Protein backbone atom coordinates (compact mmCIF):
# COMPACT_ATOMS: atom_id res chain seq x y z
CA UNK A 1 0.00 0.00 0.00
CA UNK A 2 2.69 2.49 1.04
CA UNK A 3 4.74 1.53 -2.01
CA UNK A 4 1.79 2.46 -4.28
CA UNK A 5 1.33 5.76 -2.45
CA UNK A 6 5.05 6.49 -2.78
CA UNK A 7 4.99 5.72 -6.51
CA UNK A 8 1.96 7.99 -7.03
CA UNK A 9 3.62 10.81 -5.05
CA UNK A 10 6.85 10.42 -7.02
CA UNK A 11 4.97 10.50 -10.32
CA UNK A 12 3.03 13.57 -9.19
CA UNK A 13 6.21 15.32 -8.12
CA UNK A 14 7.79 14.53 -11.48
CA UNK A 15 4.81 15.92 -13.38
CA UNK A 16 4.78 19.08 -11.27
CA UNK A 17 8.50 19.56 -11.75
CA UNK A 18 8.17 19.23 -15.52
CA UNK A 19 5.33 21.71 -15.81
CA UNK A 20 6.68 24.19 -13.29
CA UNK A 21 10.39 24.21 -14.06
CA UNK A 22 10.90 22.62 -17.49
CA UNK A 23 10.46 25.18 -20.24
CA UNK A 24 11.21 25.15 -23.93
CA UNK A 25 9.68 28.28 -25.46
CA UNK A 26 11.19 31.74 -25.97
CA UNK A 27 11.71 33.88 -22.87
CA UNK A 28 10.53 37.53 -22.91
CA UNK A 29 12.51 38.08 -19.70
CA UNK A 30 15.74 36.71 -21.13
CA UNK A 31 17.55 40.05 -20.96
CA UNK A 32 17.10 43.32 -19.07
CA UNK A 33 15.49 45.73 -21.57
CA UNK A 34 15.44 48.82 -19.36
CA UNK A 35 16.63 51.89 -21.22
CA UNK A 36 17.93 55.25 -19.98
CA UNK A 37 15.02 57.33 -18.73
CA UNK A 38 13.56 59.69 -21.31
CA UNK A 39 11.95 63.07 -20.52
CA UNK A 40 8.30 62.95 -19.49
CA UNK A 41 6.01 63.80 -22.40
CA UNK A 42 3.27 66.15 -21.18
CA UNK A 43 1.87 67.40 -24.50
CA UNK A 44 -1.42 65.62 -25.13
CA UNK A 45 -1.05 65.81 -28.92
CA UNK A 46 2.17 63.83 -28.72
CA UNK A 47 0.73 61.24 -26.34
CA UNK A 48 -2.42 60.87 -28.43
CA UNK A 49 -0.31 59.90 -31.44
CA UNK A 50 0.43 56.73 -29.49
CA UNK A 51 -2.78 56.25 -27.48
CA UNK A 52 -5.41 57.20 -30.08
CA UNK A 53 -4.47 55.45 -33.31
CA UNK A 54 -7.81 54.83 -34.99
CA UNK A 55 -8.62 51.57 -36.75
CA UNK A 56 -8.37 51.36 -40.52
CA UNK A 57 -8.00 48.18 -42.54
CA UNK A 58 -4.88 49.70 -44.09
CA UNK A 59 -3.26 49.99 -40.65
CA UNK A 60 -3.58 46.27 -39.87
CA UNK A 61 -0.10 44.69 -40.01
CA UNK A 62 0.46 41.80 -42.40
CA UNK A 63 1.21 38.24 -41.30
CA UNK A 64 -0.08 38.63 -37.77
CA UNK A 65 0.89 36.10 -35.13
CA UNK A 66 -1.95 37.03 -32.75
CA UNK A 67 -4.91 39.33 -32.20
CA UNK A 68 -5.68 40.65 -28.70
CA UNK A 69 -9.18 41.93 -27.97
CA UNK A 70 -9.07 44.80 -25.46
CA UNK A 71 -6.23 47.15 -24.51
CA UNK A 72 -6.55 46.99 -20.74
CA UNK A 73 -3.42 46.02 -18.84
CA UNK A 74 -4.18 42.29 -19.26
CA UNK A 75 -4.31 42.70 -23.05
CA UNK A 76 -1.40 45.12 -23.42
CA UNK A 77 0.71 43.11 -20.98
CA UNK A 78 0.20 39.90 -22.96
CA UNK A 79 0.86 41.70 -26.25
CA UNK A 80 4.15 43.11 -24.94
CA UNK A 81 5.25 39.68 -23.71
CA UNK A 82 4.63 38.24 -27.17
CA UNK A 83 6.26 41.22 -28.89
CA UNK A 84 9.41 40.75 -26.81
CA UNK A 85 9.91 37.32 -28.39
CA UNK A 86 9.29 38.63 -31.90
CA UNK A 87 5.56 38.03 -32.29
CA UNK A 88 3.57 40.45 -34.43
CA UNK A 89 0.47 41.33 -32.41
CA UNK A 90 -2.58 43.46 -33.17
CA UNK A 91 -4.43 44.86 -30.16
CA UNK A 92 -7.99 46.06 -30.86
CA UNK A 93 -9.76 48.51 -28.51
CA UNK A 94 -13.42 49.54 -28.79
CA UNK A 95 -12.90 52.86 -26.94
CA UNK A 96 -11.30 55.94 -28.56
CA UNK A 97 -8.08 55.56 -26.56
CA UNK A 98 -5.93 52.67 -25.39
CA UNK A 99 -5.46 51.59 -21.79
CA UNK A 100 -8.75 50.16 -20.52
CA UNK A 101 -9.00 51.10 -16.84
CA UNK A 102 -5.54 52.68 -17.15
CA UNK A 103 -6.79 55.43 -19.46
CA UNK A 104 -7.35 59.07 -18.50
CA UNK A 105 -9.76 61.72 -19.73
CA UNK A 106 -9.84 65.51 -19.51
CA UNK A 107 -12.82 67.74 -18.72
CA UNK A 108 -12.68 71.53 -18.18
CA UNK A 109 -8.91 71.42 -17.84
CA UNK A 110 -8.88 68.57 -15.28
CA UNK A 111 -7.26 65.23 -16.08
CA UNK A 112 -8.89 62.25 -14.37
CA UNK A 113 -7.69 58.68 -13.91
CA UNK A 114 -10.49 56.15 -14.17
CA UNK A 115 -9.01 53.09 -12.49
CA UNK A 116 -5.46 53.44 -11.20
CA UNK A 117 -5.52 54.76 -7.64
CA UNK A 118 -2.53 53.06 -6.06
CA UNK A 119 -0.37 50.01 -6.77
CA UNK A 120 1.55 47.94 -4.23
CA UNK A 121 4.56 45.60 -4.26
CA UNK A 122 6.77 47.93 -6.33
CA UNK A 123 10.00 47.86 -4.36
CA UNK A 124 13.06 48.06 -6.63
CA UNK A 125 14.32 44.72 -7.99
CA UNK A 126 11.40 42.70 -6.66
CA UNK A 127 9.70 40.38 -9.20
CA UNK A 128 6.56 42.47 -9.72
CA UNK A 129 8.54 45.69 -10.13
CA UNK A 130 10.95 43.90 -12.46
CA UNK A 131 8.06 42.67 -14.61
CA UNK A 132 6.51 46.15 -14.85
CA UNK A 133 9.90 47.66 -15.68
CA UNK A 134 10.45 45.15 -18.48
CA UNK A 135 6.97 45.68 -19.92
CA UNK A 136 7.71 49.43 -20.22
CA UNK A 137 11.47 49.23 -20.91
CA UNK A 138 12.06 51.04 -17.63
CA UNK A 139 10.24 54.20 -18.72
CA UNK A 140 7.33 54.03 -16.27
CA UNK A 141 8.30 55.76 -13.03
CA UNK A 142 6.55 55.45 -9.68
CA UNK A 143 6.04 57.86 -6.79
CA UNK A 144 5.55 56.36 -3.31
CA UNK A 145 2.47 57.42 -1.38
CA UNK A 146 2.65 58.84 2.10
CA UNK A 147 2.81 56.51 5.05
CA UNK A 148 0.12 55.99 6.30
CA UNK A 149 -1.15 55.39 2.77
CA UNK A 150 -4.75 54.56 3.76
CA UNK A 151 -7.07 55.97 6.44
CA UNK A 152 -10.13 54.02 7.58
CA UNK A 153 -12.87 56.38 8.76
CA UNK A 154 -15.79 54.88 10.70
CA UNK A 155 -18.94 56.47 11.99
CA UNK A 156 -20.98 59.67 11.57
CA UNK A 157 -19.45 63.15 12.05
CA UNK A 158 -20.40 63.26 15.72
CA UNK A 159 -18.77 59.90 16.50
CA UNK A 160 -16.08 59.53 13.85
CA UNK A 161 -13.03 57.32 14.39
CA UNK A 162 -10.05 57.39 12.02
CA UNK A 163 -7.49 54.59 11.84
CA UNK A 164 -4.30 55.10 9.80
CA UNK A 165 -2.99 52.12 7.81
CA UNK A 166 0.78 51.98 7.51
CA UNK A 167 2.92 49.98 5.13
CA UNK A 168 5.75 47.85 6.49
CA UNK A 169 5.55 44.19 7.41
CA UNK A 170 6.15 45.06 11.06
CA UNK A 171 4.89 48.61 11.17
CA UNK A 172 1.42 47.73 9.86
CA UNK A 173 0.55 45.43 12.80
CA UNK A 174 2.55 47.49 15.31
CA UNK A 175 0.55 50.65 14.53
CA UNK A 176 -2.73 48.75 14.76
CA UNK A 177 -1.78 47.55 18.21
CA UNK A 178 -1.40 51.16 19.37
CA UNK A 179 -5.03 51.83 18.45
CA UNK A 180 -6.35 48.52 19.77
CA UNK A 181 -4.62 47.72 23.09
CA UNK A 182 -5.47 44.26 24.32
CA UNK A 183 -6.00 42.98 20.77
CA UNK A 184 -2.36 42.06 20.11
CA UNK A 185 -3.10 38.33 19.77
CA UNK A 186 -5.92 38.95 17.28
CA UNK A 187 -3.73 41.25 15.17
CA UNK A 188 -0.84 38.78 15.17
CA UNK A 189 -3.11 35.91 14.15
CA UNK A 190 -4.68 38.02 11.40
CA UNK A 191 -1.22 38.78 10.03
CA UNK A 192 -0.20 35.13 10.22
CA UNK A 193 -3.28 34.01 8.27
CA UNK A 194 -2.98 36.80 5.70
CA UNK A 195 0.68 36.10 4.98
CA UNK A 196 0.25 32.34 4.85
CA UNK A 197 -2.73 32.55 2.49
CA UNK A 198 -0.94 35.12 0.31
CA UNK A 199 2.15 32.93 -0.01
CA UNK A 200 -0.01 30.04 -1.17
CA UNK A 201 -1.26 31.85 -4.29
CA UNK A 202 1.48 30.21 -6.39
CA UNK A 203 -0.71 27.09 -6.48
CA UNK A 204 -3.48 29.06 -8.22
CA UNK A 205 -1.10 29.73 -11.09
CA UNK A 206 0.05 26.13 -11.07
CA UNK A 207 -3.49 24.79 -11.55
CA UNK A 208 -3.82 26.94 -14.67
CA UNK A 209 -0.51 25.76 -16.17
CA UNK A 210 -0.51 22.00 -15.65
CA UNK A 211 -2.49 19.70 -18.01
CA UNK A 212 -6.21 19.53 -17.27
CA UNK A 213 -6.17 15.88 -16.11
CA UNK A 214 -3.43 16.66 -13.59
CA UNK A 215 -5.24 19.79 -12.42
CA UNK A 216 -8.44 17.77 -11.93
CA UNK A 217 -6.50 15.11 -10.01
CA UNK A 218 -5.13 17.77 -7.66
CA UNK A 219 -8.61 19.21 -7.16
CA UNK A 220 -10.71 16.08 -6.73
CA UNK A 221 -8.24 14.29 -4.46
CA UNK A 222 -8.22 17.33 -2.19
CA UNK A 223 -4.47 17.77 -2.68
CA UNK A 224 -4.90 21.34 -3.90
CA UNK A 225 -6.48 22.37 -0.60
CA UNK A 226 -3.88 20.43 1.37
CA UNK A 227 -0.87 21.74 -0.52
CA UNK A 228 -1.99 25.36 -0.69
CA UNK A 229 -3.19 27.37 2.29
CA UNK A 230 -4.61 29.82 -0.26
CA UNK A 231 -7.15 27.23 -1.40
CA UNK A 232 -7.59 25.95 2.15
CA UNK A 233 -8.86 29.39 3.18
CA UNK A 234 -10.55 30.37 -0.10
CA UNK A 235 -13.98 29.06 0.88
CA UNK A 236 -14.03 31.09 4.09
CA UNK A 237 -15.40 34.62 4.00
CA UNK A 238 -13.59 37.64 5.41
CA UNK A 239 -16.40 38.18 7.92
CA UNK A 240 -16.22 34.58 9.11
CA UNK A 241 -12.48 34.72 9.71
CA UNK A 242 -12.21 38.16 11.35
CA UNK A 243 -15.23 37.55 13.60
CA UNK A 244 -13.41 34.54 15.03
CA UNK A 245 -10.38 36.69 15.80
CA UNK A 246 -11.92 39.52 17.79
CA UNK A 247 -15.11 40.88 19.33
CA UNK A 248 -13.98 44.47 18.72
CA UNK A 249 -16.24 45.83 15.97
CA UNK A 250 -13.91 48.61 14.88
CA UNK A 251 -10.98 46.21 14.58
CA UNK A 252 -13.15 43.86 12.54
CA UNK A 253 -13.87 46.78 10.21
CA UNK A 254 -10.20 47.71 9.94
CA UNK A 255 -9.30 44.10 9.13
CA UNK A 256 -11.97 44.13 6.39
CA UNK A 257 -11.87 47.68 4.96
CA UNK A 258 -9.92 46.94 1.78
CA UNK A 259 -12.76 44.86 0.28
CA UNK A 260 -13.52 47.86 -1.90
CA UNK A 261 -10.45 47.07 -4.02
CA UNK A 262 -12.03 43.86 -5.31
CA UNK A 263 -15.74 44.50 -4.99
CA UNK A 264 -17.31 41.99 -2.57
CA UNK A 265 -18.68 42.88 0.84
CA UNK A 266 -16.82 41.01 3.61
CA UNK A 267 -19.49 38.36 4.17
CA UNK A 268 -19.22 37.27 0.52
CA UNK A 269 -15.51 37.88 -0.05
CA UNK A 270 -12.96 35.09 -0.10
CA UNK A 271 -10.45 35.53 2.71
CA UNK A 272 -7.74 34.31 0.35
CA UNK A 273 -8.49 37.03 -2.19
CA UNK A 274 -8.57 39.55 0.64
CA UNK A 275 -5.16 38.31 1.81
CA UNK A 276 -3.64 39.00 -1.61
CA UNK A 277 -4.63 42.67 -1.36
CA UNK A 278 -3.39 43.07 2.21
CA UNK A 279 -0.05 41.49 1.28
CA UNK A 280 0.13 43.58 -1.90
CA UNK A 281 0.42 46.79 0.13
CA UNK A 282 2.57 45.53 3.01
CA UNK A 283 5.73 46.95 1.42
CA UNK A 284 4.14 50.23 0.37
CA UNK A 285 1.91 51.92 -2.21
CA UNK A 286 2.85 53.84 -5.35
CA UNK A 287 1.34 55.99 -8.10
CA UNK A 288 2.53 56.36 -11.72
CA UNK A 289 4.39 59.63 -12.27
CA UNK A 290 2.63 61.56 -15.02
CA UNK A 291 -0.70 59.77 -14.45
CA UNK A 292 -2.20 56.44 -15.43
CA UNK A 293 -1.98 57.05 -19.19
CA UNK A 294 1.79 56.67 -18.86
CA UNK A 295 1.27 52.91 -18.52
CA UNK A 296 -0.16 52.30 -22.00
CA UNK A 297 1.97 55.08 -23.48
CA UNK A 298 5.17 53.21 -22.67
CA UNK A 299 3.90 49.73 -23.58
CA UNK A 300 2.54 50.41 -27.05
CA UNK A 301 5.92 51.30 -28.65
CA UNK A 302 7.26 47.85 -27.69
CA UNK A 303 4.38 46.22 -29.57
CA UNK A 304 4.98 48.50 -32.54
CA UNK A 305 8.73 47.79 -32.56
CA UNK A 306 7.87 44.13 -33.23
CA UNK A 307 5.75 45.37 -36.19
CA UNK A 308 2.48 45.04 -34.33
CA UNK A 309 -0.13 47.73 -33.66
CA UNK A 310 -2.63 48.99 -31.08
CA UNK A 311 -5.71 50.41 -32.80
CA UNK A 312 -8.70 52.09 -31.14
CA UNK A 313 -12.30 52.66 -32.21
CA UNK A 314 -12.15 49.00 -33.25
CA UNK A 315 -15.15 47.22 -31.73
CA UNK A 316 -14.87 43.47 -32.25
CA UNK A 317 -18.36 42.10 -32.82
CA UNK A 318 -17.46 38.43 -33.20
CA UNK A 319 -14.61 35.96 -33.25
CA UNK A 320 -14.17 34.03 -36.49
CA UNK A 321 -13.90 30.24 -36.56
CA UNK A 322 -13.29 27.65 -39.23
CA UNK A 323 -15.28 24.44 -39.66
CA UNK A 324 -13.06 22.70 -37.11
CA UNK A 325 -14.07 25.20 -34.39
CA UNK A 326 -10.64 26.82 -34.43
CA UNK A 327 -10.32 30.57 -33.93
CA UNK A 328 -8.92 32.18 -37.08
CA UNK A 329 -9.50 35.90 -36.51
CA UNK A 330 -12.07 38.54 -35.61
CA UNK A 331 -14.66 40.77 -37.23
CA UNK A 332 -14.33 44.49 -36.55
CA UNK A 333 -17.19 46.94 -37.09
CA UNK A 334 -16.18 50.03 -39.06
CA UNK A 335 -19.40 52.01 -39.26
CA UNK A 336 -21.88 49.57 -40.80
CA UNK A 337 -19.13 47.51 -42.45
CA UNK A 338 -17.63 44.31 -41.10
CA UNK A 339 -13.89 44.01 -41.62
CA UNK A 340 -12.36 40.59 -41.09
CA UNK A 341 -8.86 40.39 -39.63
CA UNK A 342 -7.16 36.99 -39.56
CA UNK A 343 -4.49 35.53 -37.29
CA UNK A 344 -3.57 32.03 -36.10
CA UNK A 345 -4.36 32.98 -32.50
CA UNK A 346 -6.99 35.16 -30.78
CA UNK A 347 -6.59 36.25 -27.16
CA UNK A 348 -9.48 37.96 -25.39
CA UNK A 349 -9.02 40.54 -22.66
CA UNK A 350 -12.71 41.43 -22.93
CA UNK A 351 -13.69 39.30 -19.92
CA UNK A 352 -15.16 35.83 -19.80
CA UNK A 353 -18.78 36.98 -20.17
CA UNK A 354 -18.21 39.24 -23.16
CA UNK A 355 -16.01 36.62 -24.80
CA UNK A 356 -18.32 33.65 -24.38
CA UNK A 357 -21.72 35.35 -24.49
CA UNK A 358 -21.17 38.13 -27.03
CA UNK A 359 -18.32 37.14 -29.34
CA UNK A 360 -18.95 33.43 -29.96
CA UNK A 361 -21.46 31.98 -32.45
CA UNK A 362 -24.57 30.61 -30.72
CA UNK A 363 -23.65 27.00 -31.42
CA UNK A 364 -20.27 27.42 -29.75
CA UNK A 365 -21.75 29.29 -26.80
CA UNK A 366 -23.91 26.22 -26.16
CA UNK A 367 -20.93 23.86 -25.77
CA UNK A 368 -21.08 22.12 -22.37
CA UNK A 369 -17.48 23.11 -21.58
CA UNK A 370 -18.26 26.78 -22.23
CA UNK A 371 -21.44 26.64 -20.17
CA UNK A 372 -19.60 24.95 -17.31
CA UNK A 373 -17.12 27.81 -17.09
CA UNK A 374 -19.88 30.42 -17.25
CA UNK A 375 -21.76 28.57 -14.52
CA UNK A 376 -18.76 28.88 -12.20
CA UNK A 377 -18.50 32.67 -12.56
CA UNK A 378 -20.88 35.57 -12.08
CA UNK A 379 -20.78 39.28 -12.80
CA UNK A 380 -19.03 41.50 -10.29
CA UNK A 381 -20.55 44.49 -8.50
CA UNK A 382 -21.40 47.63 -10.46
CA UNK A 383 -19.05 50.53 -9.89
CA UNK A 384 -19.94 54.16 -9.17
CA UNK A 385 -17.23 56.77 -9.80
CA UNK A 386 -17.46 60.50 -9.13
CA UNK A 387 -14.85 62.83 -10.59
CA UNK A 388 -14.26 66.10 -8.79
CA UNK A 389 -12.29 69.04 -10.21
CA UNK A 390 -11.31 71.63 -7.61
CA UNK A 391 -9.85 75.13 -7.51
CA UNK A 392 -6.75 75.19 -5.33
CA UNK A 393 -3.50 73.35 -4.72
CA UNK A 394 -3.20 70.27 -2.56
CA UNK A 395 -1.96 72.50 0.27
CA UNK A 396 -4.96 74.82 -0.13
CA UNK A 397 -7.37 71.89 0.06
CA UNK A 398 -5.64 69.75 2.68
CA UNK A 399 -4.96 66.89 0.27
CA UNK A 400 -2.09 64.44 0.56
CA UNK A 401 -0.71 61.43 -1.30
CA UNK A 402 -2.97 58.98 0.49
CA UNK A 403 -6.48 57.49 0.41
CA UNK A 404 -9.52 57.62 2.67
CA UNK A 405 -12.00 54.77 3.11
CA UNK A 406 -15.07 56.37 4.65
CA UNK A 407 -17.85 54.21 6.15
CA UNK A 408 -20.92 55.48 7.95
CA UNK A 409 -20.32 52.80 10.64
CA UNK A 410 -18.34 49.66 11.41
CA UNK A 411 -21.05 47.15 10.41
CA UNK A 412 -19.96 46.99 6.77
CA UNK A 413 -21.98 43.97 5.62
CA UNK A 414 -25.23 45.38 6.98
CA UNK A 415 -24.54 48.82 5.52
CA UNK A 416 -23.86 47.55 1.99
CA UNK A 417 -26.78 45.09 1.98
CA UNK A 418 -29.26 47.76 3.09
CA UNK A 419 -27.89 50.23 0.52
CA UNK A 420 -28.00 47.82 -2.44
CA UNK A 421 -31.46 46.51 -1.56
CA UNK A 422 -32.90 49.96 -1.10
CA UNK A 423 -34.92 52.21 -3.39
CA UNK A 424 -32.43 53.82 -5.78
CA UNK A 425 -33.37 57.43 -4.98
CA UNK A 426 -33.22 56.80 -1.23
CA UNK A 427 -29.98 54.84 -1.48
CA UNK A 428 -28.47 57.64 -3.57
CA UNK A 429 -29.05 60.03 -0.66
CA UNK A 430 -27.11 57.90 1.82
CA UNK A 431 -24.17 56.12 0.20
CA UNK A 432 -22.62 54.18 3.11
CA UNK A 433 -19.11 53.77 1.73
CA UNK A 434 -16.84 56.08 -0.27
CA UNK A 435 -13.23 55.66 -1.33
CA UNK A 436 -11.49 59.03 -1.71
CA UNK A 437 -8.20 59.54 -3.55
CA UNK A 438 -6.47 62.57 -5.03
CA UNK A 439 -4.52 61.71 -8.20
CA UNK A 440 -3.27 65.31 -8.35
CA UNK A 441 -1.78 65.10 -4.84
CA UNK A 442 -0.01 61.82 -5.64
CA UNK A 443 1.61 62.91 -8.91
CA UNK A 444 4.71 65.13 -8.43
CA UNK A 445 4.34 66.45 -12.00
CA UNK A 446 0.75 67.62 -11.49
CA UNK A 447 1.39 71.16 -10.24
CA UNK A 448 3.60 71.90 -13.23
CA UNK A 449 1.03 70.46 -15.65
CA UNK A 450 -2.09 71.90 -13.99
CA UNK A 451 -1.15 74.74 -11.62
CA UNK A 452 -3.76 75.82 -9.10
CA UNK A 453 -6.04 72.85 -9.75
CA UNK A 454 -6.69 69.57 -7.92
CA UNK A 455 -8.72 66.44 -8.51
CA UNK A 456 -10.48 63.83 -6.43
CA UNK A 457 -11.55 60.36 -7.52
CA UNK A 458 -14.46 59.03 -5.47
CA UNK A 459 -15.49 55.39 -5.80
CA UNK A 460 -18.37 53.33 -4.42
CA UNK A 461 -20.79 50.71 -5.69
CA UNK A 462 -24.21 50.90 -7.30
CA UNK A 463 -26.66 48.42 -8.78
CA UNK A 464 -26.59 48.11 -12.55
CA UNK A 465 -30.38 47.71 -12.41
CA UNK A 466 -30.79 51.21 -10.96
CA UNK A 467 -29.59 52.63 -14.30
CA UNK A 468 -30.49 49.89 -16.75
CA UNK A 469 -33.48 51.72 -18.24
CA UNK A 470 -31.09 54.26 -19.82
CA UNK A 471 -28.50 51.79 -21.15
CA UNK A 472 -29.58 52.10 -24.79
CA UNK A 473 -29.73 55.91 -24.81
CA UNK A 474 -26.97 57.98 -26.34
CA UNK A 475 -24.18 58.23 -23.77
CA UNK A 476 -24.11 62.03 -23.87
CA UNK A 477 -27.90 62.43 -23.78
CA UNK A 478 -29.55 59.99 -21.41
CA UNK A 479 -32.32 62.29 -20.33
CA UNK A 480 -33.28 64.48 -17.39
CA UNK A 481 -34.24 61.67 -15.01
CA UNK A 482 -30.84 60.03 -15.42
CA UNK A 483 -29.02 63.32 -14.80
CA UNK A 484 -31.13 64.02 -11.73
CA UNK A 485 -30.37 60.61 -10.25
CA UNK A 486 -26.66 61.11 -10.84
CA UNK A 487 -26.89 64.52 -9.19
CA UNK A 488 -28.39 63.00 -6.06
CA UNK A 489 -25.44 60.62 -5.82
CA UNK A 490 -22.99 63.48 -6.43
CA UNK A 491 -24.56 65.71 -3.79
CA UNK A 492 -24.68 63.05 -1.07
CA UNK A 493 -21.13 61.85 -1.70
CA UNK A 494 -19.83 65.42 -1.83
CA UNK A 495 -21.37 66.09 1.60
CA UNK A 496 -19.44 63.11 2.99
CA UNK A 497 -16.20 64.34 1.44
CA UNK A 498 -16.63 67.88 2.77
CA UNK A 499 -17.28 66.54 6.26
CA UNK A 500 -13.90 64.75 6.23
CA UNK A 501 -11.95 67.41 4.30
CA UNK A 502 -13.07 70.74 5.80
CA UNK A 503 -10.96 72.82 3.38
CA UNK A 504 -13.04 71.50 0.47
CA UNK A 505 -16.15 73.65 0.08
CA UNK A 506 -18.76 73.87 -2.66
CA UNK A 507 -17.33 77.12 -3.99
CA UNK A 508 -14.07 75.22 -4.75
CA UNK A 509 -15.89 72.75 -7.01
CA UNK A 510 -15.32 73.60 -10.68
CA UNK A 511 -16.37 70.23 -12.09
CA UNK A 512 -18.29 67.22 -10.84
CA UNK A 513 -19.51 64.25 -12.84
CA UNK A 514 -20.63 60.72 -12.00
CA UNK A 515 -19.82 57.56 -13.90
CA UNK A 516 -22.48 54.92 -13.32
CA UNK A 517 -22.49 51.19 -14.11
CA UNK A 518 -23.88 51.91 -17.60
CA UNK A 519 -21.05 54.44 -18.08
CA UNK A 520 -18.63 51.60 -17.36
CA UNK A 521 -20.42 49.42 -19.89
CA UNK A 522 -20.00 52.07 -22.58
CA UNK A 523 -16.36 53.00 -21.97
CA UNK A 524 -14.71 49.81 -20.70
CA UNK A 525 -17.18 47.23 -22.04
CA UNK A 526 -18.14 45.68 -18.69
CA UNK A 527 -21.46 43.87 -19.26
CA UNK A 528 -23.03 44.78 -15.89
CA UNK A 529 -21.01 47.90 -15.08
CA UNK A 530 -18.45 46.02 -13.00
CA UNK A 531 -14.98 47.52 -12.53
CA UNK A 532 -13.21 44.39 -11.27
CA UNK A 533 -14.33 41.82 -13.83
CA UNK A 534 -16.05 38.64 -12.66
CA UNK A 535 -17.20 38.38 -9.05
CA UNK A 536 -14.45 37.76 -6.46
CA UNK A 537 -16.52 35.80 -3.96
CA UNK A 538 -15.62 32.51 -2.33
CA UNK A 539 -16.77 30.38 -5.29
CA UNK A 540 -14.41 32.20 -7.67
CA UNK A 541 -11.38 31.06 -5.68
CA UNK A 542 -12.22 27.41 -5.26
CA UNK A 543 -9.60 25.02 -6.61
CA UNK A 544 -12.13 23.56 -9.04
CA UNK A 545 -13.00 26.93 -10.55
CA UNK A 546 -9.35 27.87 -11.00
CA UNK A 547 -8.51 24.52 -12.56
CA UNK A 548 -11.41 24.94 -14.99
CA UNK A 549 -11.20 28.62 -16.00
CA UNK A 550 -7.80 28.78 -17.63
CA UNK A 551 -6.05 30.74 -20.37
CA UNK A 552 -6.88 27.95 -22.82
CA UNK A 553 -10.53 27.93 -23.73
CA UNK A 554 -12.40 24.83 -24.97
CA UNK A 555 -11.93 26.27 -28.48
CA UNK A 556 -8.59 25.79 -30.19
CA UNK A 557 -6.48 28.92 -30.74
CA UNK A 558 -8.73 31.04 -28.48
CA UNK A 559 -7.26 32.19 -25.17
CA UNK A 560 -8.29 34.37 -22.21
CA UNK A 561 -6.07 36.91 -20.45
CA UNK A 562 -6.50 39.58 -17.79
CA UNK A 563 -8.56 39.87 -14.60
CA UNK A 564 -10.89 36.94 -15.18
CA UNK A 565 -7.98 34.53 -15.62
CA UNK A 566 -6.31 35.36 -12.31
CA UNK A 567 -7.61 38.20 -10.14
CA UNK A 568 -8.70 41.81 -10.33
CA UNK A 569 -6.77 45.05 -10.49
CA UNK A 570 -3.52 46.07 -12.14
CA UNK A 571 -1.45 43.31 -10.52
CA UNK A 572 -4.14 40.66 -10.95
CA UNK A 573 -4.66 41.45 -14.64
CA UNK A 574 -0.89 41.37 -15.24
CA UNK A 575 -0.74 38.00 -13.47
CA UNK A 576 -3.44 36.86 -15.89
CA UNK A 577 -1.32 38.07 -18.79
CA UNK A 578 1.75 36.31 -17.41
CA UNK A 579 -0.22 33.08 -16.98
CA UNK A 580 -1.66 33.30 -20.50
CA UNK A 581 1.79 34.07 -21.89
CA UNK A 582 3.19 31.04 -20.07
CA UNK A 583 0.68 28.79 -21.80
CA UNK A 584 1.21 30.29 -25.25
CA UNK A 585 5.02 30.35 -25.05
CA UNK A 586 5.30 27.01 -23.24
CA UNK A 587 7.41 28.24 -20.35
CA UNK A 588 6.79 29.47 -16.81
CA UNK A 589 7.05 33.24 -17.17
CA UNK A 590 6.39 33.75 -13.46
CA UNK A 591 9.70 32.01 -12.71
CA UNK A 592 11.43 33.86 -15.54
CA UNK A 593 10.40 37.21 -14.02
CA UNK A 594 11.71 36.09 -10.62
CA UNK A 595 15.03 35.00 -12.17
CA UNK A 596 15.48 38.32 -14.00
CA UNK A 597 14.65 40.26 -10.82
CA UNK A 598 17.48 38.46 -9.02
CA UNK A 599 19.83 39.16 -11.91
CA UNK A 600 18.99 42.87 -12.15
CA UNK A 601 19.38 43.23 -8.39
CA UNK A 602 22.94 41.90 -8.60
CA UNK A 603 23.75 44.19 -11.53
CA UNK A 604 22.18 47.28 -9.93
CA UNK A 605 23.95 46.57 -6.64
CA UNK A 606 27.32 46.42 -8.40
CA UNK A 607 26.62 49.75 -10.12
CA UNK A 608 26.15 51.36 -6.71
CA UNK A 609 29.38 49.95 -5.28
UniProtKB/TrEMBL annotation:
It holds the Pfam family NAD_binding_8. It catalyses: all-trans-13,14-dihydroretinol + A = all-trans-retinol + AH2. It is a peripheral membrane protein. Keywords: Endoplasmic reticulum, FAD, Flavoprotein, Lipid metabolism, Membrane, NAD, NADP, Oxidoreductase, Signal, Transmembrane, Transmembrane helix. Its main location: endoplasmic reticulum. One of its GO terms (molecular function) is all-trans-retinol 13,14-reductase activity. It is found in: Endoplasmic reticulum membrane. Its EC number is 1.3.99.23. The chain crosses the membrane at residues 66-83, 201-223. It is an enzyme of class 1 (oxidoreductase). Its cofactor is FAD; NADP(+); NAD(+). One of its GO terms (cellular component) is endoplasmic reticulum membrane. Belongs to the carotenoid/retinoid oxidoreductase family. CrtISO subfamily. This is All-trans-retinol 13,14-reductase.
Amino acid sequence: MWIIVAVICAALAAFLYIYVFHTSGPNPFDIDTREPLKPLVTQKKEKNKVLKQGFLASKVPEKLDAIVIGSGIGGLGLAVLLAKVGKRVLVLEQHDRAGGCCHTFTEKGFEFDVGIHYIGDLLENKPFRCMVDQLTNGQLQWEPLDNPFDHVVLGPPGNRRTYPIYSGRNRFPDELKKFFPGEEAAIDEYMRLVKKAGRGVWFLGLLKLVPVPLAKFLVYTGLANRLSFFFHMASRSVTEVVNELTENNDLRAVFSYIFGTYGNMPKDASFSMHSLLVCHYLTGAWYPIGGASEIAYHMIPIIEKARGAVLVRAPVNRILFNDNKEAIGVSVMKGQEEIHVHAPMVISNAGIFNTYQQLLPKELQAMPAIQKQLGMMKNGAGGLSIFLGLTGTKEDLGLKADNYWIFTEHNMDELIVTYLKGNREESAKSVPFVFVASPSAKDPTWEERSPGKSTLSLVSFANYEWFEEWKDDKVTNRGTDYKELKQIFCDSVLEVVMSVFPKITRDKVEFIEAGTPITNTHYIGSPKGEIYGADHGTARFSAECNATVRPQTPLKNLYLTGQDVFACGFAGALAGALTCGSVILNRNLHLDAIALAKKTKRVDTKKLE
